[in-house]
């Protein structure tokens, strides 16, 4: 009763006048919550007379089927609300609210208001991710209404492929048909006049239709009639060369014929005053576009991957409301008409390799314009580009024929992103590049640019600057020189100069002025020393000096207290790591792979370090000491002892990983190590995801016990849990070891994994309740891994000898 009252009266206690009617409805619902919600919402705010009539209708339905009982809620809707509800029940359950509203509004429905009514009557709800949802029984009720129409020859909607084929073959469609929505159809048989009677059809959606080789593609065999009443028309894989000439859908809002076999849409001009979206993408045989004169409200035109498209009709310039124009992948398109820029937000010409001239954009440009002409055949930019003042993003990447940029490009005051990467012939930026006062990203990777103009440091809103080249590019011996910073580039976050052939004089002495810099990549360069001021980069979080094979010494890291990642791999002349690295309290990744001259290594701050790689450091004789207390020193001793027993020299170790403050792991793999080399004292073995080991009496010896050594093969576990189980039957001491993704996935698929688990990681004095470790007689470890079988062994130490 309370549930019904909440929906009928918006309170738990009903008006006394309605009490008897309320009891009748609740009894008739037989406890079904959905019926109580729907009928309660239906009766909300109705008069006593209306209550009496409505309750009588509910009771008259003698069928026990709830869908029939619920139909009364549908009968109480206004005609347009009924249409909206049936569309949602038949087609749109689970779809995005935004898309559903767009489709319904194309049919000239008051979609927002209608949806609110349906929500208020508990027929529809909107999910957390903004999708239209309804109860299974509500959907069944809606489809039941439509199926009842079929019995009277007035079916208004089709959603089943078999039913659709029956109508198309037998020509049984009627003027009552309003909408057809098929998500996928494998075959299509039809009568040529199958749709001639469907004069009120407003929605036709055929998705993912792939005609077989026997399908007749000749225009004479196509459907002779498409309803001119259509507002929303989708046919993915439309199988004929054109639409029928008698197709004149004056109210059409949306036309999507992607993946079609069209050669042309139609000949001549059609008056489509309401058309907003035209999608002919991936129509590989399309040769030319229609005349756009009759489409004054066109907003979106998608011709992506129309690889046979030769010409875009010159009338496109008349479309003043065009927002997005996409011609990516139109490979043989040579000429492009003028475009009206009054509403334009996006122009995509990616991969138009035959297009040699930059598009002409007319009219007052709308702020926020994005232009991508990547991999097109454009040879130069016109000086008139300066008048496109509201461009915010300009992608000129991979223009193989572009040699220079006009100085007029520097007058684009609104430009925020400029990309000229992979313009392999581009040798320089204009001297006035610093005038782009709002530029935030500048990408010039794999170009011939070797001396950025000094004005570049005036880009004080720039956050990302990239000039990286490839290792192959070092062969040209052109030296890269970065200008003096002069306290500019104050907001720069990312600077990439990898493989730019930098020598000692190539980096500015005042590079330390880049006070906001967080990521600096200098890998693959030829300098021997770094500017001293680099030590002042206090905001730096990632420094990559890998493959700097001539680098002999590192800077003082003392002021880089935010540094998290330091990559020194393949620095083959590096003999030592600066002692200040031990004070980097946020450092979690340190990579020294194949630093073959490295002989000395300072202590590290174990609190933060999670990944240390010393693979191939053949001159390093001692494992680095970690600056922690005696217990941690003992744990490291354990690791060295294990490696010694494995007869596995440090030179061959692949990864050394610190997985928590007091737990250490080593990953052993490759051809140097196999399961047979696991020493015999790893005597507890298992073939499952968990192992339990009984501990001997008085196994814990204070001051001498160091921990447990665990070794297993297979994939690196996502995490491991360990429990000390007491001798009596109560809760144990839990511990969880979180593994993490190693840099570049290293070690995750290695053969052997070894980690050391000290008692301090398992023992929580606050939870001991007076017990000692010796009151615990069993240790259990559980692995979570994508590999079902995991081999491992366990051992604990009782002394350091």
From TrEMBL:
Domain named Disease resistance R13L4/SHOC-2-like LRR: residues: 373-465, 490-595
Statement: the UniProt record of this protein carries the keyword Calcium: no
Disease resistance protein Roq1-like winged-helix domain mapped to chain residues: 80-149
Record-level Gene Ontology MF annotations: ADP binding; ATP binding; NAD+ nucleosidase activity, cyclic ADP-ribose generating
Segments forming domain C-JID: 675-797
Keywords, ordered alphabetically: Leucine-rich repeat, Plant defense, Repeat
Annotated coiled-coil segments of the chain: none
Pfam families: C-JID, LRR_14, WHD_ROQ1
Top-rank taxon, per record: Eukaryota
Keyword Endoplasmic reticulum assigned: no
Gene Ontology biological-process annotations: defense response; response to other organism
GO CC terms: membrane
Family note: Belongs to the disease resistance NB-LRR family.
Protein name: Resistance gene
Organism for this UniProt entry: Solanum tuberosum (Potato)
């Amino acid at each position: 009763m309370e549930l019904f009252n909440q929906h009928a009266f918006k309170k738990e206690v009903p008006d006394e006048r309605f009490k008897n009617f309320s009891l009748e409805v609740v009894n008739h619902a037989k406890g079904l919550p959905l019926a109580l919600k729907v009928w309660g919402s239906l009766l909300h705010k109705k008069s006593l007379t209306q209550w009496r009539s409505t309750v009588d209708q509910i009771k008259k339905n003698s069928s026990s089927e709830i869908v029939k009982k619920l139909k009364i809620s549908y009968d109480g809707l206004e005609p347009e609300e009924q249409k909206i509800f049936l569309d949602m029940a038949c087609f749109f359950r689970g779809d995005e609210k935004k898309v559903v509203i767009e489709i319904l509004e194309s049919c000239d429905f008051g979609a927002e208001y209608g949806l609110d009514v349906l929500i208020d009557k508990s027929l529809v709800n909107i999910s957390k991710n903004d999708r239209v949802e309804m109860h299974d029984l509500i959907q069944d009720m809606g489809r039941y209404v439509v199926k009842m129409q079929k019995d009277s020859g007035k079916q208004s909607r089709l959603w089943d492929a078999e039913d659709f084929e029956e109508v198309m073959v037998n020509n049984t469609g009627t003027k009552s048909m309003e909408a057809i929505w098929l998500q996928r159809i494998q075959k299509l048989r039809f009568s040529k006049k199958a749709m001639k009677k469907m004069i009120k059809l407003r929605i036709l959606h055929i998705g993912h239709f792939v005609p077989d080789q026997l399908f007749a593609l000749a225009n004479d065999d196509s459907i002779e009639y498409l309803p001119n009443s259509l507002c929303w028309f989708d046919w993915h894989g439309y199988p004929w060369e054109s639409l029928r000439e008698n197709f004149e859908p004056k109210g059409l809002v949306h036309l999507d014929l992607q993946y079609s076999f069209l050669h042309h849409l139609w000949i001549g001009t059609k008056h489509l005053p309401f058309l907003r979206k035209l999608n002919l993408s991936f129509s590989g045989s399309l040769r030319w576009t229609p005349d756009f004169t009759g489409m004054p409200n066109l907003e979106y035109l998608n011709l992506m991957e129309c690889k046979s498209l030769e010409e875009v009709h010159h009338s496109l310039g008349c479309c003043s409301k065009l927002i997005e124009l996409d011609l990516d992948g139109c490979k043989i398109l040579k000429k492009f008409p003028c475009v009206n820029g009054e509403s334009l937000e996006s122009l995509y010409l990616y991969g138009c390799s035959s297009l040699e001239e930059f598009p002409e954009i007319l009219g007052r440009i709308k702020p926020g314009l994005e232009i991508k002409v990547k991999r097109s055949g454009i040879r130069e930019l016109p000086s008139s580009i300066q008048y496109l003042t509201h461009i915010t993003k300009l992608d000129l990447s991979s223009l193989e024929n572009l040699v220079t940029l006009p100085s007029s490009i520097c007058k684009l005051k609104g430009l925020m992103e400029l990309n000229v990467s992979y313009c392999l012939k581009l040798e320089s930026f204009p001297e006035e590049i610093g005038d782009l006062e709002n530029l935030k990203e500048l990408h010039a990777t794999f170009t011939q640019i070797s001396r950025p103009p000094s004005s570049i440091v005036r880009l004080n809103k720039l956050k990302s600057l990239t000039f990286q080249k490839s290792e192959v590019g070092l062969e040209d011996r052109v030296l890269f020189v970065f200008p003096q910073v002069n306290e500019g580039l104050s907001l720069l976050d990312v600077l990439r100069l990898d493989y730019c052939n930098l020598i000692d004089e190539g980096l500015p002495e005042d590079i330390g002025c880049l006070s906001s810099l967080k990521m600096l990549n200098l890998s693959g360069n030829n300098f021997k020393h770094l500017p001293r001021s680099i030590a002042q980069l206090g905001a730096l979080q990632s420094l990559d000096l890998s493959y700097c094979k001539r680098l002999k010494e590192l800077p003082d890291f003392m002021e880089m207290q935010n540094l998290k990642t330091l990559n020194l791999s393949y620095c083959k002349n590096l003999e030592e790591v600066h002692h200040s690295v031990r004070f980097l309290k946020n450092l979690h990744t340190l990579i020294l792979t194949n630093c073959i001259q490295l002989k000395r290594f300072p202590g590290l701050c174990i609190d933060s370090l999670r990944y240390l790689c010393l693979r191939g450091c053949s001159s390093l004789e001692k494992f680095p000491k970690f600056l922690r207390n005696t217990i941690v020193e003992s744990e490291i001793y354990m690791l060295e002892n294990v490696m010694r027993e494995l007869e596995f020299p440090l030179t061959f170790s692949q990864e050394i990983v610190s997985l928590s403050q007091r737990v250490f792991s080593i990953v052993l793999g490759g051809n140097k190590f196999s399961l047979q080399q696991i020493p015999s004292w790893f005597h507890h073995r298992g073939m499952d995801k968990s192992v339990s080991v009984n501990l001997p009496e008085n196994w814990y010896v204070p001051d001498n016990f160091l921990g447990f050594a665990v070794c297993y093969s297979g994939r690196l576990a996502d995490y491991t849990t360990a429990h000390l189980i007491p001798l009596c039957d109560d809760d144990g001491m839990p511990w969880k070891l979180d593994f993490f993704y190693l840099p570049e996935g290293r070690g995750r698929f290695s053969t052997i994994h070894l980690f050391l688990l000290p008692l301090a990681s398992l023992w929580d004095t606050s939870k001991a309740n007076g017990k000692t470790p010796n009151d615990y007689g069993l240790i259990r470890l559980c692995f979570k891994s994508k590999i079902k079988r995991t081999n491992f062994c366990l051992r604990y130490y009782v002394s350091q000898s």
